[in-house]
TrEMBL record:
Transmembrane segments: none annotated. The lineage of its organism: Eukaryota, Viridiplantae, Streptophyta, Embryophyta, Tracheophyta. One of its GO terms (biological process) is fatty acid biosynthetic process. One of its GO terms (molecular function) is (3R)-hydroxyacyl-[acyl-carrier-protein] dehydratase activity. It comes from Punica granatum. This is Uncharacterized protein LOC116199466. SUPFAM superfamilies: Thioesterase/thiol ester dehydrase-isomerase (SSF54637). Pfam families: MaoC_dehydratas.
Length: 156
């Protein structure tokens, strides 16, 4: 996992160590993933979302898409994955999402969370996060905002 800290107009990359620096406003965490046919089938089984857009290429093309779509909520699952893998014990409080572009099976997606506000209350930290997913580097496919309670601001 790569951590990016914006410093003025220059972006610097650094990796967290196991003792981890504290997350600060502006810090970004990213993770890449390719969603496979197997991922789509497993998600459909658990969610009971059997929309033919996810399984039938001809049906998807008839509706104006290039091919079968990955479930939007499956793509959005990158956000809690990024948060919980960096801050074990984090509590995901809320998430808003706007689906901007379709994601097709086999496309590489970059999930990104950026700390936009951090508030300490007693022994907990409430962190507001901008949440975004991109394909082909720069094409925004999901835009949103999340709130998480972190047991510590240090990444593990």
């Amino acid at each position: 996992m790569v951590f990016v800290r914006s410093i003025g107009s220059v972006r610097s990359l650094r990796r967290f160590s196991s003792s981890g620096p504290l997350i600060q406003t502006g810090d970004v965490l990213r993770e890449n993933r390719v969603f496979s046919d197997e991922d789509v089938r497993a998600y459909s089984k658990v969610s009971h979302d059997t929309n033919p857009l996810h399984f039938d290429s001809e049906h998807a093309r008839a509706l104006g898409f290039e091919d079968r779509l990955v479930h939007g909520m499956l793509v959005a699952s990158l956000f809690p994955r990024i948060i919980s893998s960096n801050f074990p014990g984090a509590v995901y409080v809320s998430q808003s999402l706007q689906f901007k572009l379709p994601v097709y099976v086999g496309e590489e997606i970059t999930g990104e969370v950026q700390a936009t506000n951090i508030r300490k209350l007693r022994d907990k930290s409430f962190v507001k996060l901008a949440t975004k997913c991109f394909k082909k580097g720069e094409l925004l496919v999901i835009d949103g905002e999340a709130l998480a309670i972190l047991p510590s601001l240090a990444r593990e």
